[in-house]
Write a structure and sequence with these properties.
Elements (H helix, E strand, L loop, with lengths): L15 H10 L4 E4 L2 E2 L1 H7 L4 H18 L4 E8 L16 E4 L3 H11 L4 H11 L2 E4 L17 E6 L8 H10 L3 E5 L11 E4 L6 H10 L2 E4 L4
Parallel strand pairs: 1-3, 2-3, 5-6, 6-7
Antiparallel strand pairs: 3-4, 4-5, 8-9
Helix pairs in contact: 1-3, 3-4
Length: 224
């Protein structure tokens, strides 16, 4: 539910081929690729025209999908609005996991998304049937988004190089009746070890949204 590919996210270190091997050996039957998308990545990390930048962003997802013959692969993203992305000088960052979006939709609105404020994004996403979760909301340097602008929270984040305070995220989700999700936040091989077990098979992004809304799943982590 939270995975980054080398080349798609500048902080990721694992190529699509190795990702497919690692998760396959661990028994996963589906992956959601959520590479970072923010103003710095859009304008500095990828070169070329806006169309070329968008294609380069989508390449990581497409490579995993093509290689994962025995797994379903869904598209998602980890989005930061405006200047809210993590950087050495930004101490109040925020990242949002978007589920339900498909590549064609992203292609049409990629550069519009990063310029939204939170209220505008929520309206835009709701009209299209997407879900917005704040990723690792209690991680060091993270600011919290108002619950009105979210559908859910990532209540379990498995990244071992950060202080995620997952219990605080879980408590906030319960307090405000927000949906819950958990994920590996995979950047390096040791990050594998979290996700979601659904009650029924999921075949596409729309079915993923329905299952998340219905609560028909269990969050797993390295202790499960």
């Amino acid at each position: 539910m939270h995975l980054h590919t080398a080349g798609g996210s500048r902080c990721a270190r694992v190529e699509p081929e190795e990702i497919v091997r690692i998760y396959g050996e661990c028994g996963y039957d589906a992956l959601t690729v959520t590479n970072h998308w923010n103003r710095k990545i859009a304008f500095d990390y990828f070169s070329g025209s806006k169309s070329e930048k968008t294609e380069k962003y989508l390449a990581g997802y497409r490579a995993v999908k093509e290689l994962a013959k025995d797994m379903r692969v869904f598209f998602g993203m980890e989005l930061a609005l405006g200047n809210d992305y993590y950087s050495p000088t930004n101490f109040r960052a925020c990242e949002l996991l978007i589920y339900g979006i498909v590549p064609e939709e992203f292609y049409d609105c990629a550069f519009e998304l990063i310029e939204f404020d939170y209220a505008a994004l929520k309206k835009f996403a709701s009209e299209r049937g997407w879900l917005i979760y704040q990723a690792h909301p209690y991680r060091e340097r993270s600011k919290r988004v108002k619950s009105a602008y979210l559908d859910g929270l990532e209540v379990y984040n498995n990244n071992p190089r950060h202080f995620n305070r997952n219990a605080s995220a879980k408590a906030r989700a319960e307090k405000y009746s927000l949906l819950e999700v958990g994920g590996s936040d995979f950047h390096q091989p040791e990050d594998v070890g979290a996700g979601v077990v659904f009650d029924a098979e999921i075949f596409n992004e729309r079915e993923l949204v329905r299952a998340l809304k219905n609560g028909a799943y269990k969050i797993i982590n390295e202790k499960s």
